[in-house]
Give the backbone structure.
Amino acid sequence: MNGKRIVDLSHEVYEGMLTHPWMPKPTVTEYISREQSAGFLTGGVSFHQVQVTMAGSTGTVLQVPFQYYAEGPDLAGFPVEHLVDVPIVVVPAAGHPEIPVGVFADLGDLEGTAVLLHTGQDRLWGTSDYFEDTCFLAPETVDYLTEARPRVVGVDSKNTDSGADQGKPAQHRLLGAGIAVLTSLTGLGSLPRTGAALTVLPVPVAGAGSFPVRPVAVIEEADRKDA
Amino acid sequence: MLTGTRVIDLSHVISNGMITHPWLQRPVVNEFVTRDQSAAFSAAGVTFQLEVISMPGSTGTYLDAPFQFHVDGPDVSAVPLARLFDIPIVVVRVPDGRAIGAGPIRAAGDLRGAAVLVHTGHSRFWGEGAFFRDSPYLTADAVAELVSAEPLVVGIDSQNIDDGTDKAKPAQHRLLGADIALLECLNRLHEVPDRGAWLRVLPTPVRGAGSFPVRPVAVIR
């Protein structure tokens, strides 16, 4: 087997975590407990079953056009083959509360890629600061990306939009252009600028426009001299 | 996606109120913020919808992690991704089998490190009552054969990998006990070649969940 490294770009989802200041927190309830199941099984066998309740925007989230467009594809309808082995371009974007279009200077063609904006905000994950002053895309940045036609745009901050902007230009326009959006990514600092491939496999929930996911970047190790 | 790659979606769609398991609560996809509601506070012409989704772990096409049957085993967030990503698939075809024995498993050849996907054809009944009746399952003999063959993943396209009336649940108890992840209610196995495709499963990392709905895919390069 050739070498390959799988980098998990997700945050864990757990009972009671803060999803967003004004959204319900996830619950992971023991629906059938181990003691309960031991009562109807034999030979010391037991299991448990959980009931998970959460907002679509919990943890590391995939957004698809249906979230902003009733006629757009939902999680079940968005073509999963567009989310497999998408060439990643990591774009350094730290130090800008409003990510300017200049971060794309000197980057080549972004068509068909996964543009992952590395702000470093994921270091605040799990603190209330994560929801304050989150980095977001400037309107010109949204214009640029809409023209460049990547397949996926992702950030390691809470939102591609400013919470104060009721026009939600990034989500409205990127999703309107059929571009999937990933928010609250982590681990972007360990990726090469180019050369990794993104795979996201969302649970196919009909009628849902966003859902927590487990995106990964796959990095093929360089060919060994002795190979 | 790279040119020349084919992706086969091995999952069933989950929708509000559908029966995916005879005695588990049905999934709820609830509009938490509706489009009309969001229009009231968004700029002109912009609306969105947010959902709260509630479902048992074993909804739709789902992954069972060792934690489901073994409290000390890894949950769906802790199964190493190296055991779920780009695993070579071996499809074992048992058309309209019911009690699947060791024979078809043994006949499939070397299974070490593989994802063994048992194709019964039962997935064609998905969404009908027939899906929950006469669902094919692995016998204890098949389970013993699989445990010694050391695959990384075992999957089936039926409703339950165990006989619903067998209180010892040998497939789940023993395969999960051997650190083998399970996939149940798979779909479209007829599109997957006997060998040569690669399985990818990326479960939402829900801590404390022994099973959770997934979108497994077979990748053919």
User: Anything to note?
Assistant: Residues 62-220 of chain B form a domain with the Glucose Oxidase; domain 1 fold (CATH 3.50.30.50). The longest helix of chain B spans residues 140-149.
